[in-house]
Amino acid sequence: MASLQDIRRRIKSVKSIQQITNAMNMVATSRLRQAKEAAVANKPYAEKMAQVVSEVAANVTDFSHPLLETHPGGKRLILAMASDKGLAGAYSSNAIKEAVAQIEDKGNTQIIAVGRKVKDYFANRSYNICSEYTSISERPKYEHAKAIADDIIARFESGDIEEVYMVYTRFVSAINCVPETVKLLPFSGLAAEEGGIRTEYIYEPDAAEVLGYLLPQYLVTTIYAALLQAAASELSSRMNAMSNATDNAQELIAKLDLHYNKVRQAGITREITEIVGGAEALK
Asked: What is the pLDDT of residue 107?
């Protein structure tokens, strides 16, 4: 049986852990509010960009662009997003599982890792990591999306990449996040659907040149929106994980307090019994 000193030491240790998890919970909750607002604010812009590109593409015929070309026999490039730090529940593992599911041939796949967890996982398993972006998962900026998009465009236009997929975690609510896979390149299905309400634009100089400018911007917008969604998902997962850890620590402290009192009471009863026994022996 553990001594009273051992139990006190363990109670103190659990209380210290509880203070840390509670602090991390509050920090994640504060950052989640900002990340959620950023993701929600960016969503209308991303949707409008997709609509404009579709409308412009519907007015272009015989248009060619490097981002629309196919490169048969090239490699598959996967842009995988997860967290830089742990203590976020199953957030990173779920995103990595989704990324692994998109890998058909390990030797014919390149990985662009966003987040230290992605980089460590694929590096330890000898995957081909062609680029890595760390320390940006919680607070992504437009410049980060621009750098990633430029990297992808350069690799795709070189002809070595046949198709590009992006794996990220879509933020649904504070308790629900869903890993998703989106095909980035080559662009396909840009034209607006038949029979829908179409917006008429005046193009200067012409629709083809406007579309040629919009396609790289559309790629940057798509990646930036995914980064914001992933950041909100990471922070919500960390908030939930730290909240559960704090609650579990409180339950463990209550059990240890009860155990401490039982051991202390048993010790007192034993001492009283010894005193009574000694007194009876002296009679």
From this structure: 87
